[in-house]
Amino acid sequence: MVVKNSKNPNVFTQLLTLLAVVTLVACEQPSSSSSSEGSQSNSISSNHSSYVGGEQQIILSSSQKPTASITNDFGPMLLQQDGIDFSYEEAKAQDNYHVTLHHGGSIRNASETPLLGISSVTVQFERISEYGAIAYRFDDAWIESPHVGNTPFASGTILYPSDEVKPTFFFSIYVSVGEYAITSIEISYSNDVNYQEKTYRGIQELDFYALNDFHGHTLPNLSEGEAGSSKISEFLRSKQLDNPNGTTLLASGDMWQGPGDSMLTRGGLVNDWMNYLGFEQFTLGNHEFDWYESAISDNVEMTNFPFLAINVYHRDTNERVPYAQPSVLISRKGVKIGIIGAMGDVYGSISGSNVKNVRFLGGSELTNLLLDESNRLRQEGADFIILSVHGGYGTISDNVTSSAVDLVFEAHTHSEYVRTDANNVYHLQTNGHGRGIAHAKVNFNLDYDTYFIEAEIIPYTEYAYGNDDISFNQIYAWYEENFIRELRDEVLTENLGYTTSGEFADLVVERYYEDFKTQALEGGYEVIIAGGSVNSRNYADHYGGPITYGEVYEMFPFDNYLAVASTTGSNLKSRFLNNSSYRVFPGNISSSSIVDSQIYYIICDSWTFDYATAKVTKVMDFDAMYYTRDVLANYLRTL
Fold first, then answer.
1. 6, 246, 459, 612: which has the fewest C-beta neighbours closer than 10 Å?
2. CA geometry: angle at 299 spanning 239 and 220, to 5°?
3. Spans in the chain with pLDDT lower than 70
4. Alpha helices in 389-540 (DSSP H)
5. pLDDT at 557 (0 to 100)
6. If 0-12 CB within 10 Å is exposed, 13-18 middle and 19+ buried, where does residue 277 land?
């Protein structure tokens, strides 16, 4: 426990995020109703006059279509924020839609003359997409991004505001994935002159749950301790409902790349899972760059949360990359929380051609960025600041946690730990793949501006054997049908015998040489070997019988492509021929036959020639982009 003082159009875009909200208008009664008692149903666009007491109703439905003028009774009810677009007329123009908003807005119970004594809110809606997730929330702030604590509900459910709701609360309906048509929203209320606004002071309990290095392991593999997204979803949803306005979900990078099911959707499946759960941010990791910057930009457009990376800059402009922002500021139970995202010293673990136009600031430059950003967030009212960094313990200076950061979630090293540094600040990391969830419970005393923290790694055994999340299963089924099944389930050969992961890697290097030496020679390069740091991953042992493209994809998931490269004889001997960690074919080349000063040509993949330490230089591309997995798959198809 730590006690401290506070320091003050892609194809996937068809899965639209739609937010519908209704204004709880001022304490006035439409002129069509003069009674001070009983329940009255009135058009939301009617003229209004004052009244006292009695229960009233406001009904927004297909029968109340406001005019286009913003000066009518409906127009002033809109409270628009940056990036938020409420267009009732546009929504009405669509077939079968009643109220449907493309990005939503947030409309609040008026602070000057609020509705008091809200007794019920009833929403009617229809789901019009193949799958979806709809939820509602009462709170004291509008929803600018997916907000945790949204409670799922069915059409026609009578919703009652929480006892903790202020008279100036916001009521929002949120659709994280899919499309819904809101057909009516009905609010029943009575103005109770004795109503007293509740205070949000005192101790507020906040829960932060973080994943790191998930690597697209959406399906369960209990033999490896991987619970899968459905089980994790059900667990996290239950935690959100336990603390509906105080729960935050975080991601610290390397979320997409891994098994074939995730790779084949190019981030879409994991993004929609995170959209559905309401993650507040996504700190970039080194493997997010495996598909180049363009893919990161495409994925930003698919998410309802920001990508964070305070220290990733373009070399030519010396400005932060446009697809990542330094931080995000959110609110939970009256506590303002700043979340800063940063990349650790992971530049060398990315293929050089993927990041040739960017650089990661480190050392004192990173420290200064973090201190400046923390100070800016404090000036904007942040009570508590979290750092989500794609790097292990020791990535950041103690100067940062001494004054700027209150809690750190880490990643990249796949090392499970909960530890405190010299400044008594917690650092947490799981070993990835969803095998654990980092959790910090923060009890924040708003009256005395202090907090204490309890931290843990929740083991997979606490959620891997629980219930499935039906909504996520629908999301997965949609992606499986449209993007996964046809490629994943292709049988490459029916009767491959028992083959170890090492044998697969050796086979790949052999095929590099046998399949491409002729093309290299035609290009003017006589290659002596093929080889490199080739290792299969993700349960590559095959126990006989049919083998599918999905299994091969899991062995070699990354987009490492082949080319011809040059190297000196001395490097060829030390790096390739006499290095047990490198695989080569043919394996009968004698070091004694190699001249140190002579230039030799080899076939290798980008994992090898993109790294300066390998001391090889690409000299020729092949006639097409050949990835490691496809070299193996093409060979297996011939068996």
1. 612
2. 45
3. 1-119, 139-150, 161-171, 181-185, 187-201, 537-539
4. 398-403, 470-479, 485-488, 501-522
5. 84
6. buried
Structure tokens at 76: 């002033």
Q: What is the pLDDT of residues 327-347, one digit of tens each?
A: 999 989 889 999 999 999 998
Cα 212 from Cα 395, distance rounded (Å): 15
Tell me which residue of 205, 200, 201 sits closest to 440, measured CA to CA. Answer: 205
Distance CA 542, CA 594 (A): 37
Give the strand pairing for 527-532 and 599-605: parallel
Question: Looking at residue 13, what DSSP letter applies?
Answer: G
pLDDT tens per residue across span 595-609 = 999 999 999 999 888
Q: Helix or strand or coil: residue 208?
A: strand
pLDDT of amino acid 57? 46
Total-model pTM: 0.79
Residue 62 identity (one-letter amino acid) = S
Is-cis flag, bond preceding 586, omega within 30? Answer: yes
pLDDT tens per residue across span 106-147: 445 544 445 555 667 777 777 777 887 777 777 666 555 554
Q: Hey, what are 503's tokens?
A: 């044998």
The closest of 15, 333, 328, 386 to 144, measured between CA atoms, is: 328
466: exposed, middle or buried (C-beta count within 10 Å: 0-12, 13-18, 19+)?
A: middle
Distance from C-alpha of 160 to C-alpha of 522, rounded to nearest angstrom: 75
Exposure of 404 in the CB half-sphere (CA atoms within 13 A): 20
pLDDT of residue 3: 60
The phi-psi region of residue 456 (left if phi > 0; otherwise alpha if psi is between -120 and 50; otherwise beta) is beta
